[in-house]
Design a protein that fits this description.
Blueprint: H1 2-17, E1 21-27, H2 46-54, E2 56-62, H3 68-77, H4 100-106, E3 110-116, E4 122-123, E5 144-148, E6 157-160, E7 163-166, H5 171-187, E8 193-198, H6 210-213, H7 221-247, E9 253-259, H8 284-287, E10 288-294, E11 302-304, E12 308-309, H9 313-320, E13 355-359, E14 362-367, E15 370-374, E16 383-386, H10 402-423, E17 441-442, H11 450-456, H12 460-473
Parallel strand pairs: 1-8, 1-9, 2-11, 2-12, 3-5, 3-8, 4-17
Antiparallel strand pairs: 2-10, 5-6, 6-7, 9-10, 13-14, 14-15, 15-16
Helix pairs in contact: 2-7, 5-7
């Protein structure tokens, strides 16, 4: 009997010891409230709901920043966006950074990226990434990539390692179908895989099929198409989960789902589930996003209030892959979440480190139930909220908790000073940022995109934007 109990006790450890396949899936502008399981009044997401019941569902999961590129940089580095030189959308990730894809590739993982990239310094609607681009996904550790510079929509034009491909259908269906073809190939190989699937949905412009729009025809046009896109996104999540089970690899595969920032304003019904603020703000509505980790047979299905963020992805996944970080002395901003996988425990009661955020002149720190924020850290103007008692951040309790306020304010100031040093390149062996690192620009202004403009000028996703750019230059 004692032998049987010992074997049962070791089962979770054995599961952790096997290096899993890893799939990271991220929506583009999906708000915390835009799921069925978070009680959206209109939108139904049966596949995300099923995933939330089967996996570890986070009630307090945070993006790396309230906009997209900074969060994507945080996913790949485990570091805040200001440390890695991506303070705003459209900045290029520094090659001096060490990415999750690079470490996993060195550890024997096959790595692939599908969909939105937005880490090569180009702004404007998603265009196919050129094969000679110095900051394409392959330069950051991805063996295979089918990617675009930014958000992409219906009937997308994609780039497979520099070769353009014109696809038809909803962008979420298209990118998932392409990713699953790749996963099917990898499932037969004697090698773990790391696959990143970054949607362009539900970022504007919005364009969904009549079938997907059908439940929302009473809404204004933008809201109707926005929610129609999320119907397609949810369907594609269902395709992923179903195919993993058909291939018989669901128990060897960890799937981590989230969004890149909070929900959009001016969409009805509202996108943030009653949280204050939207995309672009450091209130909960701009930072808190859907978050689920599913790994059947290893992660105990449940719901947790433990605060977590995309900065936790790299330390968590490196631990599962049994890989140390190549530069452990560099400041990092995430922790491993593997202690949550086996179920509730005393360790879940308090996160050992706060979560920090910085965007333009705004900054915030989340420490357990508490959140201190400022919309301008150059001024001594901070607010303190208890997120458990005051989830909509309407009651500033700084005066009632002066010691906590003072402590969190000092922690935030110290962290901001640390990110200033990182931004200047002090974390790198050279002590500075590479001299040839580019500044953001619109791809339409780059000479190597000029030959394609005539061919693309009538494509629906580019036409209005190109017309505006021409008028601005006159």
């Amino acid at each position: 009997m004692r032998c049987l109990l010992l074997i049962l006790a070791l089962i979770p450890l054995a599961c952790h010891a096997a290096r899993p396949n890893i799939i990271l899936v991220m929506a583009d502008d999906q708000g915390w409230g835009e799921t069925g399981y978070n009680r959206h009044p209109r939108l139904q997401t049966p596949h995300l709901d099923a995933m939330s019941r089967s996996g570890l569902r986070f009630d307090r999961f945070y993006a790396g920043a309230p906009v997209c590129s900074p969060t994507r940089a945080a996913v790949l580095t485990g570091r805040s966006c200001y440390r890695v030189g991506v303070p705003e959308h459209g900045y290029a990730l520094r090659h001096q950074e060490i990415t999750l894809a690079e470490v996993l590739a060195d550890a024997g993982y096959q790595t692939a990226h599908f969909g939105k990239w937005h880490l090569n310094g180009l702004r404007g609607p998603g265009a196919p990434i050129l094969g000679h681009d110095r900051f394409h996904p392959g330069t950051f550790g991805f063996d295979h990539w089918l990617s675009v510079t930014n958000f992409f929509d219906r009937d997308p034009l994609l780039s497979r390692q520099g070769e353009f491909e014109d696809h038809r259908g909803d962008s979420s269906d298209v990118i998932m179908q392409q990713a699953l073809k790749h996963v099917e190939q990898q499932a037969a190989a004697d090698q773990p895989f790391f696959t990143v699937i970054w949607y362009g949905t539900p970022h504007s412009p919005f364009k969904a099929s009549a079938e997907d729009n059908a439940p929302f025809t009473d809404l204004n046009e933008a809201s109707m198409h926005h929610y129609g896109e999320l119907v397609a996104l949810d369907r594609s999540v269902g395709a992923l989960r179903s195919r993993l089970r058909e291939l018989g690899i669901e128990k060897q595969t960890l799937v981590w789902y989230c969004s890149d920032n909070g929900g959009l304003p001016n969409i009805k019904p509202a996108t943030t589930g009653g949280l204050r603020g939207n995309k672009g703000t450091i209130y909960e509505g701009g930072l808190r996003v859907p978050g689920i980790i599913e790994w059947p047979g290893t992660i105990r299905p449940r719901q947790t209030a433990f605060p977590a963020s995309v900065m936790d992805m790299m330390p968590t996944l490196l631990e599962l892959a049994d890989q140390p970080h190549p530069a452990p002395q560099r400041p990092r901003d995430g922790i491993s979440l593997t202690h949550l996988f086996d179920g509730p425990s005393d360790a879940e009661q308090q996160r050992p480190e706060p979560i920090f955020f910085r965007y333009k002149t705004s900054a915030a720190v989340v420490d357990g139930d508490w959140k201190l924020l400022t919309r301008n850290f150059n001024r001594d103007a901070f607010q303190l909220y208890n997120l458990v008692k005051d989830v909509d951040e309407s009651d500033d309790v700084a005066a009632q908790h002066p010691q906590r306020f003072k402590s969190l304010r000092q922690q935030l100031r110290d962290w901001l000073e640390s990110t200033d040093a990182s931004e200047a390149g002090r974390d790198y062996p050279q002590g500075t940022v590479a001299a040839d690192h580019p500044q953001p620009m619109f791809w339409v202004d780059r000479p190597d995109y000029q030959p394609h403009l005539k061919q693309w000028q009538h494509r629906w996703e580019y036409k209005s934007w190109l017309d505006r750019r021409r008028k601005q230059k006159k």
